[in-house]
Amino acid sequence: MAGPIFRRLASSVMLLFLVLTLTFLLVRLAPGSPLTLFENPRLTAEQIENLRASYGLDKPLHEQYLSWLGAIVLRGDWGISFTHQRPALDLILEALPNTLLLGLTALLLQYGGGLLLGVFAARRVGTFYDSALRVVSLFLYSIPRFWLGFILILLFHLHWHLLPAGGMASAGGVDGPASAQALDVLRHLLLPALVLGGTSAAPVARFVRNSLLDSLGQDYVRTARAKGLSEGRVLWVHGLRNSLVPVAQLFGLSLPAVLNGALVTEMVFAWPGLGRLLYLAATSRDYPLVLAGTAFSAVLVILGNLLADLLHQALDPRVRDA
Fold first, then answer.
1. CA distances from 242 to 108, 124, 220 (A)
2. Model confidence at 90: pLDDT above 90
3. pTM for this model (two decimals)
């Protein structure tokens, strides 16, 4: 088992190198320049040229690439953000916990709610509840997240005054114990997590329903029923265990998708996470920050695929013993 994992990691490192190289070339060749941030009538041409030299932008493209790659490999240095004037890696690590909080909460809603709804629909196949789940899943899958976010802000903040419209904490902070501060963060977290995870829970429920119905139609399930096992034991022990194999693979692939897909949600709710940070970096041509964020996203995709394979092996003895 260690051999295939090692080969997968080796190929993943090569893939990461190719992704970063392509991203480096694309951001350098895209129209615009990070020096537009410093456009000022008071700056002379000589001062602007000095800025180009200080950021290494006056060198040929291949020299910029080799210098950037050498700094990463030899020193782990991802460069200084042009806009924030701070190490790009520090900015990524500061925003990461906020995105993890939002993304993992959304995953809990997506798969926790999707699993329960899928089992509920599978036990009532052909009924009103099954049809309702199909309609709701199609609706939630189709609507844009930014539109749903604005609607929830309109209802819960402007109309009912129940939840804050955005941010991660109340203006000026919250006085009191840590529990009060945690509750304040939770109130700010509810709407973005509902948008990010709730829109994906219904499709997951449909996936669980179809997978579970397929498992319940297999010979081993009919044998279990013939032995007199209760329907609940047949469903939860024999049917659900085998239907979780494709769901586990989907979960592994959803981890990077949810965290990377938080960009729109973070922008709508002004959530200070990684997606919002990288969007602003891309619009300002902040090369070091864009490249550091791309590396993080690529690593997430690689780890997500590896996690999907490991979960598949853990749940399916045929793959584990092969």
1. 21, 19, 11
2. yes
3. 0.85
